Amino acid sequence: MLELRNLAAKAGTFALNDISLTVAEGSCHVIVGPTGSGKTLLLESILGLRRLSDGAILLGGREITNQPLEKRNISYVPQDLALFPHLTVEDNILYGLRMKRIKDPEHARMVEMLMETVGIRELARRSIGNLSGGERQRVALVRAIAAGNKHLLLDEPFSALHHGLRRELWYLLKDLQKSCALTVLMVTHDMEEAFFLGDRVTVMIDGAIRQTGAARDVYEKPADTAVARFFGIGNIFAGRVRVLSKSALHVTCDSLGAELTIPMGTALHRPTEPGTRCTVGIRAENVMVLKTDRPSYVQENLLTGILTEILLKGASHTLLFRPAGSATVVEIEVPDYALKKLELTKGNGISIFFKGESLFLL
Amino acid sequence: MSLRRVSILFAFSTFALFAVLVLSLLYFYRGGLFLETLLSERTLFSIRLSVFSATIAAVLATALAVPSAYALSRCDFPGKGAVDTILELPMIVSPAALGAMLLIFFNNPLGNWIQTRGVQFVFDSNGIILAQFVTTLGVATRLTKAAMDEIPSRYEDVARTLGASPAAAFFNVTLPLSRRGLVAAFILSWAKAMGEFGATITLAGTMAMKTETLPIAIFMKLSTADIDGTVVLILIMTAIGIGTLYAVRLIGRKGLHA
Q1: Distance (Å) from the C-alpha of residue A74 to the closest C-alpha of chain B?
Q2: For position A293, which CATH number holds?
Q3: Is A342 in contact with A294 (CB distance < 8 Å)?
Q4: Which ipTM was obtained for this model?
Q5: Interval B188-210: pLDDT, tens
Q6: Which of the listed residues A228, A259, A290 is the one where a domain comes to its end?
Q7: Stretch among A238-252, A294-308, B175-189, B201-215 having the lowest mean pLDDT
Q8: Which of A11, A241, B11, B153 has the fewest CB atoms within 10 Å of its CB?
Q9: Beta strand A52-59 pairing with A62-63
Q10: A114 in helix, strand or coil?
Q11: Strand partners, A262
Q12: CB proximity under 8 Å: B 130-159 to A
């Protein structure tokens, strides 16, 4: 288990503040955040490349805050991979074993199997300069694991790859993490990558942790407006709590000209008093579209208005909806087949409704 | 005329300037004298002394340059700016002034102590090595630093996460990766040491068959108005110099990590 306690570090005018995090043994924890949020600085601080101004780092309960880099037993794969260009693939992979003087034949066999598994056995004699992007990533991962460290820090190692190859390497990393029982802490700015790989996800913005939790919880319930905006959630509406009952929270959203009902215990983060201002959000894919010419049995969170735009987004479409009597635009994401089934065209009058359990309070 | 053509014209003008200087030597070139001068005991001594002292000086300068360049390239420390600036001292002051500084140093109590209890430098062949070493150390450090600056420190960081000590990471990763830069630094230092004159003559003097390097031999031939002999020695020096620089270009062309 890797534990960070109230970590603080500086790089020029940028600072990491009060970072506390626990990466459970054998899990993959992903820190996601925009560029310049301090993700790399945090990894460098954990490795000991940056001096901490405060806090402590514990590995398996043992404090390693002041230990030299080579004694921390944490492998690191930086963004540029840093494969040694003067060594062959095999020499790169065996570098850690040689430095640590690991002569256990069992370990050497494990490394050979690892090379076989990730498909780089036949590249052993190649020089680094003759590898493709995907091969380089594989070599970097195997080198990090071969050194015998069970803790792995990854700094956006797949960011330079095209989407198809990236997905392939995500599966590979998941497999390696499980089969080698690795504890992985990875940083990325790619949300898809974060939620795909992370057992737990931390959102970091401006040098501070804004949210940590199970990947599903973080995805569904962003903690605040900054996190929601970073996730690309455009449907964020200001409102005022009207009624707070045992079963639900009723919020009046003047910008939508509607009252939203949020069931208690689903999307609600914090108790709110009636009359207080609040912000409600919903992901575009959780907004349901109803045709106005069909009867609807939906009573709550129902809005009527005009479909102002239909934008193609690969396998899905983004619809822009303006509620009647409002200038606010609601984003809706529908799959291609649904759009065809609904026979929607720009300018249609439609109804939408927000599933109560998908609404979240920021 | 396009910028490309103008720049190429300037490049050829520079070449022409030096080519004319070399070719003008041929006016005084006497074919029969070449072998006689080249094979004379005094010339061979000068070549041997120059090659030997320049090699020792360049080896010492490069060896000392490696740790200094590493510190300047990788570390932040108080006085770094001063150390970095002083590297240019041999270029700022003239070689004669540098030689004079060495001579004055050996007339100080500490210098005297070194001379009487240690090694003799003033008017001695050791002085040649010292003068060449002092004039090339800055260049060797500067070039080695440039080579190390090109190697991301990330390599060492990763090597250390894989279990290498700082020294092991340096010797296994940074040093091999900067080898081409190091070789280039050595060769250029050696070439500079081979041609060193001002500091050498000031510290070691002009004693035939004792402190007579090739540049000093040229000076001595010229001072006795032996133009034909001077031309032969210059041609020998030019051949050695151009051969060395060509070697540097070959190393450079192969690339840093090749």
Answers
A1: 6
A2: 2.40.50.100
A3: no
A4: 0.82
A5: 899 999 999 999 999 999 888 89
A6: A228
A7: A294-308
A8: B11
A9: antiparallel
A10: helix
A11: A249
A12: 152, 154-155, 157-159
How many DSSP H helices and E strands does chain B contain? 15, 0
Q: How far apart are CA B57 and CA B128, in angstroms?
A: 9
Q: Is B160 on the interface with A (CB under 8 A)?
A: yes
Strand order in the sheet with A2-11: A14-23, A2-11, A52-59, A62-63
Number of domains in chain B: 1
- Report the residue of chain B nearest A130, measured CA to CA: B258
Q: Is residue B7 part of a domain?
A: no
pLDDT mean over B234-250: 83
* Same domain flag for A211 and A333: no
Residues A256 and A287 in one domain: yes
Q: At CA A256, angle to CA A254 and CA A261, rounded to 5?
A: 85
pTM: 0.80
Nearest-CA distance from A207 to chain B in Å? Answer: 22
pLDDT tens-digit series, residues A109-154: 888 888 888 888 888 899 999 898 889 989 999 999 988 889 999 9
Six-digit token string for A173: 């990393």
DSSP character for A284? G
The encoded tokens of residue A278 equal: 């609040």
- Answer yes or no: do A265 and A308 share one domain: yes
Chain CA centroid to CA A18, Å: 20
Task: Quote the number of domains for chain A.
Answer: 2
Residue A212 and residue A326 share a domain: no
Query: Of the candidates A205, A228, A251, which is a domain's last residue?
Result: A228
A residues 294-353 closer than 8 Å to B (CB): none
Indicate if A107 and A248 belong to the same structural domain.
no
Region A179-184 average pLDDT: 89
Q: Which long-range contacts (CB under 8 A, 24 or more apart) does B101-106 make?
A: B102/B127, B102/B130, B102/B131, B102/B134, B102/B199, B102/B202, B102/B203, B103/B202, B103/B203, B106/B203
Looking at the fold, whether A273 and A213 belong to one and the same domain comes out as no
State which residues form the domain around A310. Answer: 233-361
Q: Using one digit for the tens of pLDDT, what is the confidence trace for B18-37?
A: 999 989 988 888 878 888 88
- For an interface test with B, the pick among A40, A51, A86 (most B C-beta atoms closer than 10 Å) comes out as A86
Q: Is residue B11 part of a domain?
A: no
What's B66's domain CATH number?
A: 1.10.3720.10
| Residue span of the structural domain in which B187 resides | 30-253
Q: What is the nearest CA distance from A85 to chain B, expressed in angstroms?
A: 7
Is residue B147 included in any domain, yes or no?
Answer: yes
- Look up residue A306 and give its two tokens: 């005009």
**B177 → closest Cβ in A72, A86, A147:** A86
Phi/psi class of residue A275: alpha, beta or left (left: φ > 0; alpha: ψ in -120 to 50)?
left
Round to whole Å and give the CA distance between B41 and B45.
6
